[in-house]
């Protein structure tokens, strides 16, 4: 029996480095035995079906295959459709966000790592909110992510802390969820 998953790659296709064409990513995932592979956008979002298994193991296998095929290390986080549904259920900031592109979702392969994002709280300014959930964290930057010190930190130094974070705005997360539902 297969289950739906999403692989979220961090830091690809930004600038000239770490280029991963989405057609090549789909082919790579299919070569690993995954089926119904679809990609969304050019930023490393791949939905696929795989035998039920541990998301961290799937992430490690995909990351190793990317390094072997493309010659560089790419952090990969894998979440199941059930994980994404649980995230949606606990994201109380979505109801308050007028623009989902200004609501970042922070993914971690190990949900225990999300607690470390509390370091962002002192950086919050008026119109910003941070929600640390059991399955993800959310940062709402009403004035724009690039205008936010907390947003800059989570996309930069905090996000590259070695804890395995990656981010997507909530609009993209909703598109991923819709793609997973249409495939399943």
UniProtKB/TrEMBL annotation:
The record's Pfam families line, in alphabetical order, gives:
DUF1697
The signal peptide stretch is none
Query: Record's superkingdom?
Result: Bacteria
Gene3D superfamilies per the UniProt record, alphabetical: SP0830-like domains
Q: Which InterPro entries does this UniProt record tie to the protein?
A: DUF1697
Record-given protein name? DUF1697 domain-containing protein
Species the sequence originates in: Eiseniibacteriota bacterium
């Amino acid at each position: 029996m297969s289950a739906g998953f999403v692989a979220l790659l961090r830091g690809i296709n930004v600038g000239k480095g770490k280029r991963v064409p989405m057609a090549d990513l789909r082919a790579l995932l299919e070569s690993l035995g995954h089926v119904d592979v679809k990609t969304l956008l050019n930023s490393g979002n791949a939905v696929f079906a795989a035998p039920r298994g541990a998301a961290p193991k799937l992430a490690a296998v995909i990351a190793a295959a990317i390094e072997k095929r493309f010659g560089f290390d790419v952090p990969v986080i894998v979440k199941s459709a059930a994980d994404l549904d649980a995230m949606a259920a606990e994201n109380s900031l979505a109801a308050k966000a007028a623009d989902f592109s200004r609501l970042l979702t922070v993914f971690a392969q190990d949900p225990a790592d999300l607690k470390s994002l509390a370091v962002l709280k002192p950086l919050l300014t008026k119109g910003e909110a941070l929600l640390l959930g059991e399955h993800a964290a959310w940062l709402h930057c009403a004035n724009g992510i690039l205008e936010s010190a907390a947003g800059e930190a989570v996309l930069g130094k905090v996000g590259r802390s070695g804890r395995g974070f990656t981010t997507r705005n909530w609009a993209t997360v909703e598109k991923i969820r819709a793609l997973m539902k249409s495939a399943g």
